[in-house]
Amino acid sequence: MAGDAKKSDEAKQDDAELTDEKSDEAQKDVEPEAEKDAETPVEPDAEKDAEAEKDAPAETAAGSDAPAGDVFAQKRGIPTLGWVALVVVALAVGLLVGRFLPGDAGAIALSGKTELAASELDSAIAAYTYKGETVKVTAREVIDEMGGTEDTANDDGTYTVPAASDVVTYAQNQIILADAEDRGLTATDEETDELAEQTFGTADYDSISSTYGYDRDYIATMATITKLRDAVVDVTLPEQPTAPDSPEDGQEDVATAEYASYVIDLLGDEWDAEAGTWARTDGEYYATLSSYEFTADAATYDVAQAAYQVAYGAYSDAYTELSNEWVAYTRSLLSNATIQLGSLVAS
Predict the structure, then answer these.
(1) Beta pairing class for 271-272 and 277-278
(2) Quick check: 100 and 124 in contact, CB under 8 A?
(3) How far apart are CA 325 and CA 316, in angstroms?
(4) pLDDT in tens, 197-226
(5) Spatial separation of the C-alpha atoms in residues 315 and 128, rounded to whole Å
(6) 3-state SS string over the chain?
(7) Among candidates 115, 124, 118, which has minimal Cα distance to 142?
(8) Residue 108 has pLDDT above 80, yes or no
(9) What CA–CA distance (Å, rounded) separates 194 from 77?
(10) CB of 61 within 8 A of CB of 212?
């Protein structure tokens, strides 16, 4: 009987501690690293470096500056350009940190624990509450999203306890997906393939999985988030311009038809193709290129590069506006959610 009384007292103490933690932490805003490192387009002068990085072997990006929501870039070294959908930034989510669901047989005590056995992967390590429904998060779910159990197992068959930032990111994505489902939005096969092509240069999911560790289901999830973003954001992102090819040595001042075609394609309605001259003089391209000499048949690399800078500036401005609207939407959506973590390791 004395032992039972002692257990009862300990249980009361645990409940009291959890209550204190809730009181202290319930209003704490989560500021994921994505807030600090919100994805921005690659600057024109750095674009070729980014392309070289894209072609280089992928490595785990330890200490990467990639947004917390950008799992591909954060974990596999993949360029972040174009992955607006993955940027789950500036999320004001109530965060409860402490013992997770004391007394729940489905949870696992993580205090001081850095490794998990394979048999523990389906245990709950966190939970999120959205629209009155509480959903448990297992270690396996987080690990699968961050690279998969096959790729992340330690040599001894154990698994490193997921970082708190990874768990928060997983929960945030699930809440956003729930919103997409409420709106009846799900990515089609074609949309999933398109996103794979844009990011990896291929829709061969076996190749993507073996190289980067991400399967088709995960890419489909990101495509769905992209679809939600496009549905709730008013900004239309223009096509990202591609920099003109550099001329060969000694050919920098040689005007070519290729550079002329490149420039004219960018000018759009600012150029009168029939007249072979400017259609109007109040546009951004005219303001920049009016001092250059070129025709519809011949232009130098300098003219093409100047036109590219204008196009890139317009793309960057639209990108920033789109990102700001998406941030505002996700902040509002997730401000009504809470995430409760176990005693997880810091990111």
Answers:
(1) antiparallel
(2) yes
(3) 14
(4) 988 899 999 998 888 878 898 899 999 999
(5) 36
(6) CHHHHHHHHHHHHHHHHHHHHHHHHCCCECCCHHHHCCCCCCCHHHHHHHHHHHHCCCCCCCCCCCCCCCHHHHHHCCCCCCCHHHCCCCCCCEEEECCCCCCCCCECCCCCCCEECHHHCCCEEEEEEECCEEEEEEHHHHHHHCCCHHHHCCCCCCEECCCHHHHHHHHHHHHHHHHHHHCCCCCCHHHHHHHHHHHHCCCCHHHHHHHHCCCHHHHHHHHHHHHHHHHHCCCCCCCCCCCCCCCCCCCCCCCEHHHHHHHHHHHHHHEECCCCEECCCCCHHHHHHCCCCCCCCCECHHHHHHHHHHHHHHHHHHHHHHHHHHHHHHHHHHCCCEEEECCCCCC
(7) 124
(8) no
(9) 20
(10) no
At 128-177, the pLDDT tens digits run 999 999 999 999 999 888 766 566 788 898 998 888 888 888 999 999 99
Phi first, then psi: give them for residue 219, nearest 5 degrees: -65, -35
pLDDT band at 47; cut points 50, 70, 90: very low
- Classify residue 7 by burial, with Cβ atoms within 10 Å: 0-12, 13-18, 19+: exposed
pTM: 0.67
Strands 338-341 and 94-97: parallel
For 124, list phi and psi in degrees, rounded to 5: -75, 130
